[in-house]
Design brief:
Elements (H helix, E strand, L loop, with lengths): L1 H17 L16 E3 L8 H5 L15 H4 L19 H9 L14 E3 L4 H9 L12 H9 L2 H5 L6 E4 L32 E4 L9 E3 L11 H13 L4 E7 L9 H15 L16 E7 L10 H8 L1 E6 L9 H7 L3 E4 L18 H4 L1 E2 L2 H5 L5 H6 L3 H18 L8 H4 L4 H24 L1
Parallel strand pairs: 1-2, 2-3, 3-4, 4-5, 6-7, 6-8, 8-9, 9-10
The structure holds 2-acetamido-2-deoxy-beta-D-glucopyranose (NAG) (6 copies).
Membrane topology: Single-pass type II membrane protein
Keywords: Glycosyltransferase, Golgi apparatus, Signal, Signal-anchor, Transferase, Transmembrane
Family: Belongs to the glycosyltransferase 47 family.
Amino acid sequence: MAYFTLSFLLLLIKFASSQQISNPITTEDCNNRWIYIRGLPSSFNLDLLAKCSEYPLFDDFCPYLANHGLGQKTHSKSRSWYRSDPLLLELIFHRRILEYPCLTNDPNVANAVFLPYYAAIDSLKYLYGPDVNSSFQHGTDLFEFLQSDEPEIWKKHMGHDHFLVMSRPAWDFCQPLDNDPPLWGTSFLELPEFYNVTVLLPEGRAWPWQEHAVPYPTSFHPPNLACFDAWVRRVKRSRRTSLMLFAGGGGIGATPNIRRSIRTECNNANSSNNGNNTSFNKTNRIYSKICNIVDCSNGICEHDPVRYMKPMLQATFCLQPPGDTPTRRSTFDAITAGCIPVFFEELSAKMQYRWHLPEDKYPEFSLFIPKEEVVFKGLKILDVLMAIPRSEVRKMRDSVVELIPRVMYRRHGSSLGLRTKKDAFDTAIDGTLQTIKDKLNNMLEVEH
Ligand SMILES: *[C@@H]1O[C@H](CO)[C@@H](O)[C@H](O)[C@H]1NC(C)=O
Ligand SMILES: *[C@@H]1O[C@H](CO)[C@@H](O)[C@H](O)[C@H]1NC(C)=O
Ligand SMILES: *[C@@H]1O[C@H](CO)[C@@H](O)[C@H](O)[C@H]1NC(C)=O
Ligand SMILES: *[C@@H]1O[C@H](CO)[C@@H](O)[C@H](O)[C@H]1NC(C)=O
Ligand SMILES: *[C@@H]1O[C@H](CO)[C@@H](O)[C@H](O)[C@H]1NC(C)=O
Ligand SMILES: CC(=O)N[C@H]1CO[C@H](CO)[C@@H](O)[C@@H]1O
């Protein structure tokens, strides 16, 4: 199966690297928006996919290569839903940029240069493979290539106009160069060679460096406007029978943390009163369940969106506690389901997805409850949620629904109607072009 997918993809990408594909019309104004795709040897992208089963300490990701990185459909008749793995964002992005309307074959007229390097997939050999002790080398071969093959493309702006995608959190790529032996991660983002390159990834560092966060891919990739609209109608119509939902794992141990507090509160809430409680008054009695937990331990939900999307459709608030790192794919699943996200750390979203989720809109579409208040000061999440008037909840949900297009990666080759909606990819490209433009302008000012 994987071989089949791969050879198909190879053909497509080979074909597409010489010319752009499937752009029946170009209505877009391409002024200042030209992108040049740097040709790279297949060792930097396709060959890495062929090794999808070669990391013993990391799950075989061959099944998720299907459909150009969207994964297999959840079932044969599904049109919009796939078993997507966020690791394949690099491939999803590569496939989508091939149909970007303003591609150019001339690097000299390009406003930005895309490097189709599958950086996170390449990092697996350092993170989980035999090369763990040379993780500071991650990226050096790419840099050498860029300096030796048509070096004038890099030199034109010293890399400031280049960008690439890495499909894992920055945390995995910022091992200090002098850590010997390495503790965790490669040093890709620490290499001065790449400081000038704009990097798109699902989670950045607390301080904005060269990286910008973009949404994790969810499993929703509609092919046309009808499929998109049908989903949005379903989201709006859905009866929200649980007040709050947590889909995830963790919080089982004895150490106090936010996931443990959520579990404790959840268990107490529905066992002591199934909606029949004096503080659970008329306003809130529409909920048949106060709290719902979808246990996603051991990665069982990862490629099975039905497990959590159905409960999310039925919940009003979806809790987004930090786990190993502050961000979660689940934030975007929740938004897709019209479930209002509840954040416990600013780093979980507000300090990350500035292009996709504007900072000033957070009070309209989400709730923030500092985790310290819950874990150490006894604040009950339920009390906070129940105190929100129903009219306010409805307004918040409307704002969440408005965000759905911006956080989805629509299917490649989707209908022209759907292409009129800016999705996560389009928004990321806009942000990247603006960032690069600002950088180049700043450089000009410095020179004068
Ligand atoms: C990496 O280095 C550590 C410490 O020097 C050593 O114990 C380990 O075996 C090395 N790992 C590999 C895969 O070479
Ligand atoms: C990055 O840009 C700076 C100027 O802003 C330049 O001095 C430096 O050499 C560039 N780095 C590389 C690796 O090209
Ligand atoms: C809830 O409590 C009220 C008054 O305490 C009682 O009359 C009612 O039967 C209870 N309902 C349920 C479903 O337990
Ligand atoms: C009612 O629910 C609130 C909030 O969950 C809880 O603090 C309180 O103890 C409950 N009261 C009873 C009588 O179960
Ligand atoms: C119901 O409870 C909420 C929160 O505890 C409170 O704000 C609201 O005024 C209550 N409504 C009624 C009718 O008691
Ligand atoms: C009595 C009851 O319904 N208990 C449930 C409370 O919620 C937790 C988490 O969803 C469940 O595990 C309990 O079974």
